[in-house]
Amino acid sequence: MLTVSSVNVNGLRAAARKGFVPWLAGTSADVVCLQEVRAEEDQLPAGVRSPEGWFTLFAPAAAKGRAGVAILTRREPDRVRVGFGSAEFDGSGRYAEADLPGVTVASLYLPSGEAGTGKQDEKMRFLAEFLPYLKELRERAAADGREVVVCGDWNIAHREADLKNWRANRKNAGFLPEEREWLSRVYEEAGYVDVVRALHPGQEGPYSWWSYRGRAFDNDSGWRIDLQVATPGLADRAVKAWVERAATHEERWSDHAPVTAVYGV
Predict the structure, then answer these.
(1) Are 16 and 44 within 8 A, CB to CB?
(2) CA dihedral for 148, 149, 155, 157, sign (positive or negative)
(3) What is the pLDDT of residue 213?
(4) From 90, 99, 144, 153, active-site residue
(5) Could you give all domains of the chain from N- to C-terminal order, each with its CATH number?
């Protein structure tokens, strides 16, 4: 079995102070993908930078204090890669991947965007470059007899079932028609599978992000934007997937919750 967890930590230094460290110590995951690390390796406490029993790959952003992804693995990867061949985005701390026996695991922090601003233009440029890479990655993996899972904060709610207040968000970044259409292309054109949705069809959520404002968490008024997106062969071997939602607001160590899946490999 291969257990993979993914979580946007909303700043790893802050998360480490709030509860990430005991969560990591207690997880049964073989791979943990992190997003929005927002720190260089030398800024992290030793136990977070090099936790016992883990091999770590950090991909910080060139812009200090922004973005950043990481991959933690129980066994040493056969190969690692930072970026996906983009002149604009490879230094932005938004993508990294690690090859393990038979499977490539990637950590993605897709830009959040903001409708009607330059941030949204940046997001759309990222999407335009990333889809061809996803196709290439799948083709390359298939030629090598490998599977792929791209974990992370995709910052797009695909369907109405993927966010609580979808009517109020139809003109907001994360639920714009062009973003949702792009994600459809990931599934239909590039041939990937949304693992959590495949195991939980017809269900509202399960949400993975809740705003800190108001009582969003207590009311479960969230978004399902943290995904594990896999090639069909691996998705077919997913036996369980869930969101590790904290029991109470006070026990949260990020505004996101870990999304975990177990694969028979």
Answers:
(1) yes
(2) positive
(3) 87
(4) 153
(5) 2-263 (3.60.10.10)
